[in-house]
Write a structure and sequence with these properties.
Blueprint (H helix, E strand, L loop, with lengths): L3 E4 L14 H16 L4 E7 L2 E16 L6 H4 L7 E11 L8 H16 L7 E5 L3 H8 L4 E2 L6 E5 H7 L1
Parallel strand pairs: 4-5
Antiparallel strand pairs: 1-2, 2-3, 3-4, 5-7, 6-7
Length: about 170
Amino acid sequence: MIINFFPISKGINLKDFDCGDKDLNIYLSRFALPNDKKNISKTFVAINPEDPTKPLGYYSVSMAQVIFETLPQELQKGLPKYPVPAMRIGRLARDLSFKTKGLGPLLLKNAFERAISISSEVALNCVLVDASNEKAKSFYLKFGFIPFNDEPLTLVLPLKTIIQSI
């Protein structure tokens, strides 16, 4: 199946999306579009071209910074001791109907490609992610994300690692 990624829009039926997590469902149906319009976060939706109104999954991103001292020790080497620019994946979810079809990694890959693209115009050293729970954290750990010591559900992956992996 071909999957396309588009910025969130009014033409997509957001109400029927169900990833099994009430908070992620509510975010998509009630807050993603207003946040997009206010430039709080940008949401990108995975769509099957055969049914372009049904979201299969989504992720939301925003720019962020990481206080140098909070970075995991192994990522501090060679960086200046002031805030480090980052892209934050605030939310990432796939519909339950695509639970075993590999959509989660595709959503993450698209977010990575977006980070690489952005980095040519805006300083970006790493990608942050806020895992909603331990299960989500284990998903991100498989892709090389490193948890923060003081915030174990916040993880980071250097952009140079992402570039090498794609």
